[in-house]
Amino acid sequence: MQVKRNRNERGPTETGWLKSQHTFSFGHYHDPKHMGFGPLRVINEDRVIPGAGFGTHPHSNMEIITYVLDGELAHKDSMGNGSAIKTGDVQLMSAGTGVTHSEFNGSDTEEVHFLQIWIMPDVENTTPGYQQKSFDQSEMINQFRVVVSKDGEDGSLIAKQDARLLIGKFEEDFETTFKGEKNRNYWVQIASGQALINGEEASVGDGFAIQNEDNIMVKAVTDSEILLFDLTQ
Predict the structure, then answer these.
(1) What share of the chain in percent tops pLDDT 90?
(2) 38: alpha, beta or left, given left = phi > 0 and alpha = psi -120 to 50?
(3) Any residues with CB less than 8 A from the CB of 24 and at least 6 apart, and which?
């Protein structure tokens, strides 16, 4: 079974400094039909103007993944971390018992465009933790590369949940098949370009909930970047 989440039906947030599209209910946007998908709770596509950002705010008991698509994001948190998250970087913050952090555009001249992803942990009230890694982009060309997993597979960041995040960057007309399992749930999110997911048309911002399928067939109609979530049921 495959159900498309159309990019134009996502919940919007627009202020003077932020443009955001929410795949699932978030903040002021509430849709009881779209509260998440298994442990995957949030996919926000955010654009922040130069010199602006999210002031210090708290989180607890959530695995928070930030993936920068374009630009640079400046991060500070109550664990003492201060970092620049650049294009292609993956950051994972395990909020656990509680953490505060801020995120600001790291450029004075260019917009920053990123995905913020929340995954509910399978254990609560753990000690907060921080991870960040710049993955070799060549390892994502025309294949999916694991960047987040429960066990640190292939040098990936470690999440407190039976979940994996894989990223692939596919050249125009390239086709591949991801071998799935019927006892797993999958979510596909189009980060850029146009593609066919099991034969169904997809453009940037579209998402797909996939269940009880052995294979996920991907064809890049244009150069495309695609996120694939492999989730426990």
Answers:
(1) 99
(2) left
(3) 31, 34, 35, 36, 37, 40, 41, 42, 43
20 and 13 in contact (C-beta within 8 Å)? yes
Buried b / exposed e along 152-167 (16+ C-beta atoms within 10 A)? eeeebbbbbbbbbbbb
Tokens standing for 201? Answer: 């048309």
Which residues make Cβ contacts (< 8 Å) with residue 80, sequence separation at least 6?
A: none
The CATH code of domain 10-134 reads 2.60.120.10
Domain ranges of the chain: 10-134, 138-232
Quote the tokens at residue 136: 């070799």
The token pair at 96 is 């656990």
Rounded CA-CA distance 191/193 in Å is 7
- So what's the architecture of 138-232 in CATH? Sandwich (2.60)
Residue 43's pLDDT band, with cuts at 50, 70 and 90, is very high
pTM: 0.97
Q: Residue 134: how many CB atoms within 10 A of its CB?
A: 11
Location of structure tokens 């979940």: 163
Domains 10-134 and 138-232 share a fold: yes
